[in-house]
Design goal:
Layout: H1 10-42, E1 58-59, E2 62-63, H2 66-70, E3 79-87, E4 90-97, E5 100-111, E6 138-140, E7 144-149, E8 162-170, H3 177-192
Length: 204
């Protein structure tokens, strides 16, 4: 005897058919909600720290464009500098942001036969083929740079036969090699135009 499959009543069939669109809509709604939630999470990234401090127009006695100095400084709220003379023939100043040292600028007088390669403490990792100018008077990395500064008429007459070197060293990974190149070049130019390199400058 053949067994017949139970027949579904028209009412039951209609109910199943009508439930399919509703189920599909619910699935789409759930996916949409999840997508919105995920997109919301991706936009909740913390804001990038800002540089809220005022950048000085001089660095260790030399005029330097603030934007060049800003490029290698980290974010923070307050900036201050602390200059001091670290020797008879050299001077150093530190830049602090939120009371943390972030940069050191220094200049000192050396014998004229000295080169940037044997005077600069900031040239660790220097590529002598790529990171030095053709005249070999300027060298730089992401972390620091050195250059010879023209000073034909120094404030101290005994330095007329010496060479002025200037250095920049940073403690943070903020700027690029190009930023450092621009900054140390400007710092050298600023020293050339400073009281250190004019006969009317300091005499002690």
């Amino acid at each position: 005897m053949n067994h017949l499959a139970p027949r579904t009543s028209p009412t039951h069939a209609a109910a199943r058919a009508s439930s399919r669109p509703a189920s599909a809509k619910a699935t789409i709604a759930t996916i949409t909600t999840l997508s919105l939630a995920l997109s919301g999470c991706s936009s909740d990234e913390p804001p990038k720290p800002k540089k809220l401090y005022t950048v000085p127009t001089t660095l260790c006695g030399a005029a330097v464009p603030p934007d060049l100095l800003t490029a290698v400084l980290p974010p923070g709220k307050k900036l201050h500098t602390k200059p001091w003379t670290s020797g008879y023939n050299q001077s150093t100043c530190r830049v602090f942001i939120d009371n943390e040292p972030v940069l050191v600028a220094q200049y000192d007088w050396q014998r004229k036969e000295r080169t940037i390669f044997d005077t600069a403490p900031s040239l660790t990792g220097l590529d002598r083929k790529k990171d030095v100018n053709p005249e070999r008077t300027l060298g730089y990395t992401e972390k620091g740079g050195v250059t010879k500064a023209a000073c034909p008429n120094p404030a101290r007459s005994e330095y007329k036969t010496w060479q002025l070197f200037v250095y920049i060293t940073t403690y943070k990974d903020e700027g690029t090699k190009e930023d450092m190149k621009n900054l140390v070049t400007a710092y050298g130019k600023g020293m050339t135009e400073s009281s250190e390199c004019t006969s009317k400058g300091r005499t002690t």
